[in-house]
Amino acid sequence: MRETLLVVDDDPSLNELYRLELEDEGYRVLTAVNGQEALDRLRAEPADLVVLDIRMEGMDGLETLAEIFKVRRELPVVINTAYSNFKTDFGTWSADAYVVKSSDLSELKTRVREVLRRRKARAA
Amino acid sequence: MSEQAPAGPARPATTGTQAEPRLPGSAHAERELSELHLLFRVVNLMHSSMDPAHIARITLTAVTAGTALGMNRAAVLLCDREAGTLRGYMAVGPNTREEAAEIWARLGRDPLSLEELVSRALGSGGAAADLALFERVGALRLPLGALGEGPLARALEGEGAIFGDEDVLPHLVRTIFDGPAGMVLPLRSVDGMLGVIVADTFSGSRDHLQSSLPLALDVAQQAGIAMGNAQQLSEVSVRAAELATLHELGKKFLGSTDLGDDLQLLARSASEASSARSSAIFLAGEPDRKLAVEARWNLGDARPSPELDAALRNLAEDCLRRQRPVLVRDPLAEGAPAGLTEAGSVVCVPLVAYGRGIGALVVFDRIARTSFEIPAFDRQDLQFLCTLADQASIAVENLRLLGSFRRSERRLRETQALLLQNEKLAALGEMSAKVAHEIRNPLAAIGGFARRISRTVAQTDPNHEYVHIIVREAERLERILSEQLQFAQLSRPRLALEDLNQVMAQTMQLLGPSLLERRVRLIKRMGPDIPRLLLDADKIKQVLLNILQNALQNVSTGGRIKVETRNVSGSVQIDVANDGPRIPGDVMERLFVPFFTARQNGTGLGLAVADQIVHEHGGEIRVRCDADWGCVFTVVLPVEKNEDRRAGIRERRSRIRADRRRPAA
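^ Those are the sequences you sent over. The predicted structure of the assembly is below.
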């Protein structure tokens, strides 16, 4: 069964890029351009993993992360951001992986695959 | 009396060495007349000269030439009030009776005019006989206080006297002037007693001499006046030259901005104006006030020996400490320290500016101005050098102050520039953070889509290459952005106890592909005894990565990079060496300045970031050029400070644990 990913980024072009690239990897991909839309999407359609940007208009990624965990504590989250310092400075410990945004998506793809494999292994 | 005075000796010399027979009345008158002629001509000749030595020579020639005074040998002895002696100054005459006979005979055959006689004697430097006598007289040093009661002492009181065997004459004088009779004549200038003329005869008697005494006294009187004038004139001309030197030097110092040039000029002027072969200027350095030679002047190639140099330094130190000039006229006679005896006469004057001793000027090895002068400095040289030193000290100190003012001004400017830069950097940091998000997203989209396209475009399609250009350029922009962010986002380190060798190994792993691509050999020397250090592993990785990347860019393809960790007393050191070309000095100085880059595609941030991180860890980065390796970076991380921090953290942790326990209790 195809896994479903939710990509949350306030840049529509990037959302489109992630969707295309991750679909090529064999995932089903949903997108949202802000935190609220992401939460609405999650309520309507359960996803297996969330790729989350941090700096966003309105509800930012960290707030969104907290809201997601209120609903689904076990949902894996990969943070994908332009800011490498969130890696150490913020309470991003609760995320499963941390990727610095790049035009080269191979790291993002690797992390997503790893996180999903780990989850599956734990569930099994 | 007129200028048509007859030439030739006042009276043809007879070949005899016997006393002349008494003359009848008219002949006596003729003789008196010719004696007056002689005196007149001698006086004329004397007063036409302004050289004391020349005058002395004329006088002595007149006293010994011809028969007017009937003397065979004569000498001038001068009072040296500083040394407290009566010293031989000049002598004329044959040494022995045989020589005298020969001279008389020669004069009889070939009568010379007095002028000719004098000029010939001066021109040839004196006959051999004269030289022998001159040497014996020149060595005479009679203490002024111990001359006793004899004719010599009386002459010094202004009274001419005849001496014979029965008179008490200092032994040394009598051994030279050992004829049956002689006379001592006072040599007095307008200002006071200069010395005496001593003369003797091989054949004349006391009585005979008695009759020529009045004439001899007249000659001596005129000689004294002429010598006094000449001495004063030479004194005046020396002073004038000294004043001219002071004036010249003052002018040059005022216009100069180079301390080295000025010191050299001072050394040279001091030497030249005081007729010294050598001089040296010592200045007290900061902060230990140790004296060092800052300028030297040596006539010819002469260079003082190390012993002399050491002795001069001691003298200069002593002189500076007491801030008083020192005159060592004759180091050998005065029992000066061993090294100093090479120096001949020495004068040392302190350099004092604004009441503070700044050094000393040493002038040594005096040149005799004339062959008859003793090569020793006197009070007047000392006085001149003191004046010179006073004037020069102020100029030197002003220049030194100017130099230090310039240095502090430069430092101030540098600090200001640094502050400005820090401010700029802080602003830049904020801006970067804002801009990064704005740029990074579209950049990721551009690059990302370009990658997608590149996968669908056939290799043969020219667009394939163009799309690749977009991919590569986007990557480059992203890299620049990361470095900027690294620099802007230097937050407080997150410390943990880490194994540095392991951190190194992880970093080097990241570099693997680039090393392969450039075929660069990586030599690893990991120290076995590296203590675990409290550090931010991510940041230290960044440091090592930046330095390694720098090294990689510096080496040529196929080159070598060496990485070494060491435990060096109190610190852990990481060397990253590469065998690329040496870094030029001006680039080396600015390696860690943000935005400075020697490369076309560098951001100038890599090493600046590394430097800042290492500083935050309480360490430093050193760079040096090496014979084997073009360039070696050394990261020094202190172990001691590290332990302090560990202690601090342990303490905080235990406090936190205690706080946790409390509510539970």
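Residues 418 and 424 of chain B are 10 Å apart (CA to CA). Chain B touches chain A at residues 433, 436-437, 440-452, 471, 474-475, 478, 482, 485-486, 489, 491, 494, 538 (CB under 8 Å).

Shout if you want it in another format.
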